[in-house]
Structure formats: structure tokens, C-alpha cells
Amino acid sequence: MNNTDSKSCSTKLRPETFLAFHICGVEKLTKDTYLVRFILPANSQLGLHPGQHLVLRGVVDGLEIQRAYTPISPATAEGYFDVLIKCYQTGLMSRYVESWRTGDMAFWRGPFGGFLYEPNKYGELLMLAAGTGLAPMVPILQSITDNADDETFVTLVSCFKTFEGIYLKTFLQEQAGFWNVRTFFVLSQETSPELLPWSYREKTYFGRLGQELVDELVSRCRRKPFALVCGSPEFTKDMARCLLSAGLMEDSFFLF
């Protein structure tokens, strides 16, 4: 690493300026989703609140593109941060990301995001996530379970097409072991509980997350819920409508 590289890496993250970070690992989680680890200098922390996001800059065919991604590593992680990235066949940024190799540099700016989690502010968080919309939920959830003084209840509902497509299974199973955390899955392209492992059968729904299930999830919350929603624009719009119909006020949910 030359001097200019180390200088760019050790500068504090800012929303208006892209900084260079080295890639130290690329793991393929599913056929189209990657977990990428970036190095932070001298065991420093990234400095994001849980659930905040960064903007990545890429250049493909001479065209500059920017996309937002949420680190899934704990806010307290030292020396690295992890990002979950889904690639699409026709996506320009996807072509750029799929070209990454260990040792490459990527350029990020931030942080961004209007939801700043505070311990014990809400009785219960109802997290509704579709696909990589799981990303902002992960550091928020981990900040709760890492803090013995935070007694917030969490109900996390993750929507995927198939069981094989579920990200971070081990992490989610570990989190479900905490006294204040429940995890559920909604699989849109599966129909048979018998094909799932035993530990998933009682907490997996089939089809799509719609009004009936949202009503049930809200009614089963142990305390007054505050909902967090992240997914595609269509999913987010649907969930906002379902939450309002389920009786939540507009100031009782946040749409990432």
C-alpha cells in the first residue's frame, strides 16, 4: 500500500467525499449475492449508527454509477466492515461488483440514513425485511443482543423466495436464541413444511407477506410495536399500507 492509499483509508468517513477501502474477502452466499469484507486501518471503527448506509461508486464502460448499501457488520466492529450485495444480470453496478477480487479497492462515502436506533426507546421492534432488505436489520438486532441493558423485544420477519436463498442462517438462528428475539421466515416459492429442517417448520410461512399475516404479527407483538421495513420499493409500499391497516400510525414505522 503506498502513502496516498493509506492516507485515503485513514481519513474519516464523510458524506460528500469518496474514500478508498481495500477488499480483504469476497464470499458468495447464494448464486447472486455476495458478502464482501473491507479493511479499516489500525483497528478503527467505521463510525456508523446501526442501520445507516453508505454509497458505493463504480465505473463501468466509462460510466460512473452510485448505489446505496448497508453494512451488516456490528457498529462496534474494529478493523473491518462487511457489506451484503445482490447482483442482477442487467445491472451495471453488479458487473462492477462481480469483477472484485481480494486486494482491490472500492470507493465509499457516508454515512446516510434517518433512523438512529436508541436502546430501550421502543417496547418492541417489528422488522419486516425482503431479501437484502435484511441488511439494516442485522446491525440493529446485533446491537440489541450485544447490550445486556437493552431489553427491547424484536420480531424479525425475513422474506425470501426459497429456503436455500435465506442469507445468514447461522447468525439468525443464534439471534433467535436470545430471550427477547423471535425470527420468522416467509418463503414465496416453497409450499411444503416437510422439506424444511425441524427448527424452521414452526416459524416459516408460505406465500407472500400480506395483510392477514401482518395483522397476525402485529397482534402477537408482546409490547407496542415500532416497525422497520426494508426491501424493494414495491415491498416497502405494500408493508406501509398493511401496517396502517393493522392499526399502526405513520409515526410508528420507518421505511428504509
Primary descriptors:
single chain, 256 residues, alpha/beta, 7 helices, globular, Riboflavin_synthase-like_b-brl, CBR-like, FAD
Descriptive notes:
With 256 residues, the chain is of the alpha/beta class. It is 23% helix and 32% strand. The protein is built from seven helices and twelve strands. It has helices at 3-10, 92-98, 137-145, 169-175, 198-201, 211-220, 233-245; strands at residues 19-30, 33-39, 53-60, 63-69, 80-86, 105-112, 124-130, 153-160, 181-187, 204-206, 225-230, 253-255. A six-stranded antiparallel sheet has the order 4-3-6-1-2-5. Strand 7, helix 3 and strand 8 (153-160) form a beta-alpha-beta unit. The two termini are 36 Å apart. Residues 1-10 have low confidence and may be disordered.
